[in-house]
Amino acid sequence: MPSRRSGRRHPAAGAPGRRPHPARSRKALAQHFLKDPTVARRIVDALQIRPEDVIVEIGPGRAALTGRLAEKASCLCLVEIDETLAERLSEKFAGTPAVRVIVADARSFDPESVEEIRDNPYKVVGNLPYYAASPIVRHFLELSRPPTLMVVMVQREVANGMAAAPGDMSLLSIGVQVYAEPKILMHVPPRAFSPPPKVHSAVIALKPRDQPAIEVDRIDDFFALARAGFTAPRKTIVNSLAIGLQMRVSDLAPIIGETAIETTRRPATTSIAEWESLYRAWAAASKPGLASVRQAPAVNRGRRE
User: Fold this and answer.
1) Rounded to whole angstroms, how far apart are CA atoms 34 and 69?
2) Strands 122-127 and 54-58, bridge-based pairing
């Protein structure tokens, strides 16, 4: 069982990230605070917290989840980018030894820099700010030692994208599903927040896989190919790839011909397994056009190469 630390404010652990000026409003950070206790309870219940669990809460804000989490977890690390809110959280939970407040940007937060996390499995939970939800999720899934479970609130369209099936796939879908099994747990209306956002939200559970869903020689190159494939998602996959890889369609057709993928299909209809087969055919052809798309914007560094 991990040791317990006091609830005093702790400086940013690992990479410091970007800190806003204390006077900068949460509205500027596009944050909407959860106020519905029923939603909060269901999120905490979804974590299935055991007494020995270490929990990382991202963006606790006004602590709608925090009190419930502190009652159940052995150690609760609160990662808050706003220094003013972090100070308030430190004061509020000063008498709760299991709580540790860390001022950091979750997009660059290093869990291994925290002793309680470094030595134990951990779970991640949070009402993620809309502007940073996808980067935060990708960051944790890419880690060499990812959490055992993530339960996070995101914009409904983002949750749908993460959990999409072939027919509605996107680069985000592939980036998440290669590393985790997603499941949308519930939809949350704007009235559950203060101030209410203009969009609906959803709570999604992400169960990281023991190994990625694909076996390729270089996972960063795999995501580079996927990025090229979604360069023009409304076009056929062969035309979109031709644009992304800066190749002629006539040169790409034989590569796609090595797979069971019809060249008339659109990228959104392609499954992860089909992307893997396409990657193998592309790799066998020495990965033409790779230099054009080397830096893919999805999960592209890879946990295990």
Assistant:
1) 15
2) parallel
- What's the Cα-to-Cα distance from 158 to each of 78, 109, 296, rounded to whole Å? 23, 22, 18
Beta strands in the chain (DSSP E): 9-10, 33-34, 54-58, 75-80, 99-103, 122-127, 149-155, 180-188, 193-194, 201-208
Question: In this predicted model, what pLDDT tens digit does every residue of 279-291 receive, in sequence order?
Answer: 999 999 999 999 9
Closest Cα to residue 141, out of 164, 114, 172? 172
Distance, in Å, from the CA atom of 48 to the CA atom of 52, rounded to the nearest integer, reads: 11
| pTM of the predicted protein model | 0.86
CA distance 112 to 29: 26
How far is residue 299's CA from residue 220's CA, in Å, rounded to a whole number?
8
Tens of pLDDT along 152-163?
A: 999 999 999 999
187 — phi, psi (to 5°)?
A: -100, 145
Reduced to 3 states, what is the DSSP secondary structure of residue 124?
strand
Q: What is the pLDDT of residue 31?
A: 72
Which long-range contacts (C-beta less than 8 Å, at least 24 apart) are formed by 133-137?
A: 133/158, 134/158, 134/172, 135/107, 136/58, 136/106, 136/107, 137/162, 137/176, 137/206
Contact 275, 261 (CB under 8 A): no
What is the set of domains in the chain, with CATH numbers? Answer: 9-208 (3.40.50.150), 219-293 (1.10.8)
**Residues 6 or more apart from 129 whose CB is under 8 A from it?**
29, 30, 31, 59
Residue 30 is predicted with a pLDDT of: 55
